């Protein structure tokens, strides 16, 4: 008889525990999903976009790209380099080049309005970076920095849209 009461109380406790835990587990699961979404493209996303771009290159463009990349480097392998570079002391200047902040009220991107100076970097946004580094890569007489410019172009061409800034 004592065992039956004990089992019954255990069942009631377990049922109450499950009822209490379901919402908590749902909240934990939802929080994990939110964190995963915040992580952005990640290396796999950048590498996929870079591989798709690589597949669309003309033979002449492919030759130029391969000439700019270092030994053993491919477009997918360098596609996340700017994300790592901007977190170094040497590359900290480039962090503002990873996005474009369109003003929420405007609902329209205007280069002169939305690509503004940040700290000591003028025209600090992904669009300015694309223009700048594309020019550097296209100049066949440019220095050895072309590989870095090409890596930055990959990043900025496959930058994820950001939420508009609050006014």
UniProtKB/TrEMBL annotation:
It comes from the Eukaryota. Keywords: Disulfide bond, Endonuclease, Glycoprotein, Hydrolase, Metal-binding, Nuclease. GO terms for biological process: DNA catabolic process. GO terms for molecular function: endonuclease activity; hydrolase activity, acting on ester bonds; metal ion binding; nucleic acid binding. Belongs to the nuclease type I family. This is Uncharacterized protein. It comes from Paramoeba aestuarina.
């Amino acid at each position: 008889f004592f065992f039956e009461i004990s089992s019954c109380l255990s069942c009631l406790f377990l049922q109450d525990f499950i009822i209490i835990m379901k919402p908590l587990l749902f909240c934990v699961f939802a929080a994990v999903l939110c964190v995963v979404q915040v992580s952005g493209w990640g290396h796999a996303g950048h590498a996929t976009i870079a591989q798709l771009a690589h597949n669309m290159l003309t033979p002449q463009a492919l030759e130029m790209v391969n000439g700019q990349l270092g030994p053993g480097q491919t477009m997918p392998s360098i596609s996340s380099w700017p994300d790592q570079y901007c977190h170094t002391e040497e590359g900290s200047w480039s962090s503002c080049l990873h996005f474009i902040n369109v003003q929420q009220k405007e609902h329209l991107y205007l280069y002169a309005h939305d690509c503004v100076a940040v700290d000591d970097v003028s025209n600090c946004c992904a669009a300015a970076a694309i223009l700048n580094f594309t020019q550097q890569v296209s100049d066949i007489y440019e220095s050895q920095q072309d590989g870095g410019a090409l890596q930055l172009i990959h990043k900025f061409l496959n930058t994820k849209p950001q939420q508009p800034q609050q006014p």
